[in-house]
Write a structure and sequence with these properties.
The protein is globular. By secondary structure, the chain is mostly helical. Helix 4 crosses helix 5, helix 4 packs across helix 8 and helix 6 crosses helix 7. It starts with a helix and ends with a helix. The longest helix has 36 residues.
Length: 193
């Protein structure tokens, strides 16, 4: 089953609308969607290494735009939309602790959490809810999301063929390891907040 899913992902990564789909997933992930854009970014760069930088740029720009939606949700619609999203991720109980962390280390919270598997949407919603400075939030999002996506693209651009062979050979363990990282991100979110 993993092999057929992987083959499908590689075919879709080469589709003419793949960049649009990546942009939509990256946008949604920064504000409400649970699936990280990496699941599309990696196969897209592996399928088309010469487009690695464009793919990373689309992922970055749409992630930042989605983060601005998350900020708006936190700022304008926290009770109606933001709190239910945080409830979904199990982060509501720890929200007060995050408020104190934001007051002292807001910029660093955004920079560090934007690079980790901790769901970025929690950071974007919290930034809006705590009225973190919007231009600083946007700049930090560009830096952290760009660093993450361009680093992945650079690694795949440099070592793509070897990485593709390794992924294809160890698809099961890599898939489970990636899933474990995502789960650990959610666990860390509950522990850290």
């Amino acid at each position: 089953m993993l092999r057929s899913l992987y083959a499908w992902a590689m075919r879709m990564a080469a589709h003419r609308h793949a960049l649009l789909a990546l942009g939509l997933v990256s946008f949604a992930e920064s504000s409400f969607f649970p699936l990280p854009p990496d699941v599309m970014l990696v196969p897209m760069v592996l399928a088309s290494r010469e487009r690695a930088w464009r793919i990373a740029l689309v992922c970055t720009v749409t992630s930042v735009l989605g983060g601005m939606l998350g900020y708006a949700i936190g700022s304008l619609l926290f009770d109606a939309v933001g709190r239910p999203i945080l409830d979904f991720y199990g982060a509501t109980d720890q929200f007060d602790a995050l408020a104190e962390l934001y007051r002292e280390w807001g910029l660093w919270v955004i920079l560090i959490k934007g690079l980790t598997p901790i769901p970025y949407k929690v950071v974007t919603i919290a930034s809006g809810a705590f009225a973190f400075d919007l231009p600083t939030f946007i700049a930090a999002s560009v830096v952290t999301r760009g660093a993450r996506f361009f680093l992945i693209a650079a690694l795949l651009w440099c070592w793509g063929p070897a990485m593709k062979a390794t992924i294809e050979r160890y698809l099961g363990p890599i898939t489970w390891g990636t899933l474990a990282l995502v789960v650990l991100g959610f666990v860390a979110l509950r522990w850290v907040l």
